[in-house]
Amino acid sequence: MDYSGDSLQKYAQDIQKVLELRSSYYDPTVPKMHHRKRSFTNTWTLEEWKRHSSRRRYIDHILAFHRSRVLARVAPPLAVLMVWTCLACWFYDHIAAPTHIISMAPLSLVSTFVAALLTLRSNQGLSRLNEGRLAFGKVVLYTRDMAQLIASNVYPKDQALGLKAARHVALFAWLLKGFLRGEEVNGTDEDILRVMLPCSPKEKKSFADSLSADAAYILQQRKRPVAVVTRLRQIFAHMLSRGLLTTSEASRLDHNVQQLNYCIMITERIQASPIPPVYTTHTARLLLFYLFHLPLALRGTNMLDSVATIITTATLGYCTLGIDEISHFCEEPFRLMPLWHLAKNSLRDCGDAMTSQPPPLLVEDEDEEKVMIPLNEEIEEEEPVMEEETSFQL
């Protein structure tokens, strides 16, 4: 398939059009409660880091407590816990007087196991989050590296195939984001596929819906990022068979393609294999058992009055339920990771690699004159001329 009429200028215009189609600062595929400047769903700037580490942060956190995302998530179970605590306090105040026979020791032993399970679960969730960040960070790295290799090794030898490969690489991060979020949340991304994989003049005559063969192929695939990897390998193998790429150049390009394939595998493994549900279920059950008996123990031992019991139970409930909820967020990292911004960064880097080329090199020849060597032009080395031996007759 040949992109007739395609050029670097059109490639840059198409990238700008995709950025306009995805111009929103906040990711529309994440809940609106996370649409804030200092949120994990966004990539941070120096200004956000400065505010995040400010000495005033404690005051800001207290004043913004009513807008807490963790509080909004744990509000339903915390409300049920408060109703139960009030009923327990009313029962001891009006029907059964508190007695000192009840002991807090059994509940204290249970609290030790609850704390240990929540700690281990949080560590496992953070480990999965860190692995997901590393995997998608490599996507940005290898798409940029791939675009640079295409600009220096592929495009100068076959502009049509070079632009085709660059367009697929620029789409990779968006397609991986859609694969991880699902069409129900992310959508099909058909609009940006139509922009980045345009129809050739021959296809426009054959197809009425203006959907190119490349875009139709990707939309039909079960794993669209894998379809991009397959297409890139097809392009590079074709150029190698025609002698347009050396073995070294093809090896470097294939290495980057393999790394993109590896990133798909890592993200797919994280999404497909959660923390063992048996562990999660056991932790939740033990946590509910502890919170259920906490107001009975606090008020039944006459350790605290009703008001103090309600305040203590609410505080412990917010802390433990909040930790459990944060662990669930970290367990599924791609739900809240800044994939929207990272995909934009990958797209911009791919565009810069193809359109923002460095100036020509300055090379000195034998006459010590500076010669302009354009980028991507191979320098032919002249074979040294062997001087003929001169024989002298005595």
Description:
By secondary structure, the chain is mainly α. The protein has a domain of 261 residues. 67% of the residues lie in helices and 2% in strands. It has a two-stranded antiparallel sheet. α5 runs parallel beside α15 and α6 runs antiparallel to α15. It is elongated and about 90 Å long. The C terminus is likely disordered.
Structural class: mainly alpha
| Terminal CA distance | 73 Å
Number of strands: 2
**Multimer state:** single chain
Strands of the widest sheet, in order across it, are: 1-2
Percentage of residues in helical conformation: 55-70%
Subcellular location: Cell membrane
Organism: Fistulifera solaris
Main location: membrane
InterPro entries: YneE/VCCN1/2-like (IPR044669)
Describe the structure in brief:
It is found in: Cell membrane. With 394 residues, this protein is mainly alpha-helical.
List keywords for this structure.
transport; 394 residues; 2% strand; cell membrane; membrane
SSE layout and pairing:
Blueprint: H1 8-21, H2 46-52, H3 57-63, H4 69-94, H5 105-154, H6 159-181, H7 183-186, H8 190-196, H9 201-206, H10 213-220, H11 224-241, H12 247-272, H13 277-300, H14 306-331, H15 339-355, E1 361-364, E2 370-373
Antiparallel strand pairs: 1-2
